[in-house]
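Suppose a classmate hands you a notebook page containing two proteins, each written out with its sequence and a corresponding row of structure tokens. How would you begin to make sense of it? This section walks through that situation. The first entry is reproduced here exactly as it would appear on such a page.
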Amino acid sequence: MIDIKVVKWTPDESPGAVTAFLKRPAFDAAAEATAREVLEDVRLNGDAAVVKHSQAFDGVTLKPTQFRVTAEDFAQARESMEADVRAAIRETHKRVMAFARAGMRKDWTMFTPKGGTMGEQFSPLDRVGIYVPGGAAPLVSSVLMTVTLAKVAGVPEIVVCTPCDKQRRINPCLLFALETAGATETYRVGGIQAIGLMAYGTKTVSRVQKIVGPGGTYVTAAKRLVYGDVALDLVAGPSEIAILADETAQARWVAADLLSQAEHGTGFEKILLVTTCMPLAVSVRSELERQADKLSRRQAVEKVLEKGALIVHVNTLDHGMELCNRFAPEHLEIHVREPRIWLRKVRAAGAVFIGAWTPEAAGDFVAGPSHVLPTGGTAVMFSGLTVDDFRRRSSFMAFTRADLQETLPIIEAFGRVEGLDAHARSARIRFEDA
């Protein structure tokens, strides 16, 4: 029998189990040490290091000429697709594309007080790298939640790295999704070495400007270490979910939703139920054990239930929302009588799923917003992936003579205070005779 803790919590009194649960690290120190060694090897030795570490970590023998997925590989994948899966991929692609287009920030302009203009304009990055996990499961949906956004943003070169099996094969559904979403280059390389490949470049693969996409602890650690060599999106590590529920919630549904995030297989996933209803807490605990026994990934799920699951009873929903905000989950479901009211009180969550008819899986597979979301408590400072993560923002200003003349005293005051007389003079000289 799995011992899933049920504890009481108030904002003024937090038991040790809750405190420990909230303090889960966003990064794993051991993974970071390994990632540092592998990345340095890739930086120094390029393709040879990628080959070596692909063999060591994934058990796959690759030559640099075999890194890239060919047009023939894509054609074979296309031909092998079942009609219903092909239709599902296309429908999700359409929905993600529509959401991305609706969310794109537009160029804008405003007038200055004396007739000039200023504003912002946006342009796509030139070359981005996208990591798509493919170890424990071929995350076809992650392709659509990342590559589609880059395509909508107008990025001309979209590079994807994803691991292959020991026969150098990639799941055909994943390849079809890549083709549908608009990837321009795909490489059968995974793990830390894939991050190094994209960040530093090799003789075979040119470096990218930014790396995005979810991954396990080693990929997440590697991404953090290459920050500065490339831009990054966010901390998107092992999955996590919190559910806020009252007595109206269905125990079977709540348990099923919690288990949906426990099956990813890293063992670092976190699942949290916060409820005002003790009978619900007891019922969900029983349902978790009962439903887990029937899942195909039972061993992975049970590992999470033993180490990464917690049920918390609170006195009020306000207390419950406060705990959820402190947890800052990747996914937050709200199963209460008036869920939309409580949406306004969410301060920190990657994505919010409102009401009993919005399981987290809808966000993972079809709704429209990207499912690449901050984990490890970083939702307090990061937001989920959007189309604008694939674009640059430039501000612009065009003063008239009258604008500069009006602001000249301010420029000179700052120049004097900061000791930057050349700054001040560059404005003043325009009003002096030669």
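The notebook's second entry, a different protein, reads as follows.
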Amino acid sequence: MTEPQISIGILSSSEIRFELYGEFTSTGLKNKLSGRYNAKLDEGIIKIYQDSTLVMGSDEINFTPNDFEIESFLLRDVIIGKNFHWEKKENQRFRGSLKFIREEGKITAVNIISLEEYLTSVISSEMSPNSSTELLKAHAIVSRGWLLSQLEKIRPKTKTVSNNEIKSENELIRWYDHEDHTNYDFCADDHCQRYQGVTKIISDSANNAVRSTEGLVLIYDNKICDTRYSKCCGGITESFENVWEPVRHSYLSQIVDYKFELDGIDYDLTKENNAGRWIKSNPHAYCNTDDPRILSQILVDFDQSTQNFFRWQTEFTQEELSAIIKSKSGIDFGEIKDLIPVERGYSGRIKKLKIIGTKKELVIGKELEIRRTLSKSHLYSSCFIVKKENFVNNIPQKIILQGAGWGHGVGLCQIGAAVMGEIGYGFDEILVHYFKGAQIQKIY
């Protein structure tokens, strides 16, 4: 196998401002291109302007640097943290080629780049390059494996459409994965892997971690592992099939995020009573830390405004919650009488949740659908219990969610891995902990 080139959708808009640093070529133009430009959609045609001068127009436009190592391009007003509470815009700089395509009535900017170059940015974007060397190496292998395993799914000669919804009158079960992208391999935000070009490469640490692990992935049963990760598992990781498609991967099954199971705890969190006790407790776990030095390795920049995620609490008034659910689901449930966990996964994350309103009852899932439905942005996780207070005519006026963890909880727990790296575990020990039975192998 050779190192692949990949395509990443960075930004979609009716107009995109960008800058070319160095000399770029484009099909059909003899002159080299450099400087500031605007891309606009005009009557279905992508048109490139420099100042007010039309440079070119086409259905699809490519810009290729003469020197991939030195030259780069900048995209203005790139949205990061889309639909999350930290959403904002920033200017981002990228290496590789730039392609503009038409997509859903807008222009999409796509970056084409080598896998290892992409990984260097992902490691820097997902966490601080000042993280421990072992954490950076472990994450490089995890990110590489996830990427390659997804390419195997999305690049067959004949693509298949995956069914990611089960719908009936009383139930709506959806799961989301990166296969939503049809015109490029991956997006640049948390929906796939956080990728911010060379904007975030601020030290040699990330580069060294990627280079020293080049071509290394986790293998299980002679296949590249689909190595997932999230911010904080909350003390127990979740199993793949409870979050995404109903396929079990042994290396993505639940594990206790500590060096041993603790006495006095019933870890069967599929049972409601056990899940409630677990969420109310404060157990030893690698990811149970408030050390700002360790957290700063994972919670970079805008993430650091997020606190109390190992155990968390959020409150809604009746008016707030009913309005949010109506807005996010498109269904008028009326006033919300109750939220009842119907089925939980191994980490206590709710797979199916019954929403009972004065006008409508519906079971929803899986975990991301639950998180999206119950929050203006995203709940930290679907691992929560529900408290109801201040009843008026048997309808609660206050609904409190007490929860655990941040993210889907499958695979590598980033904060737990950061702690393991700090206390002396090697990258291979970190990987073996989170991906049971998998082996490290060099494939190119």
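A careful reader of the second entry would note: The longest helix spans residues 133-154.
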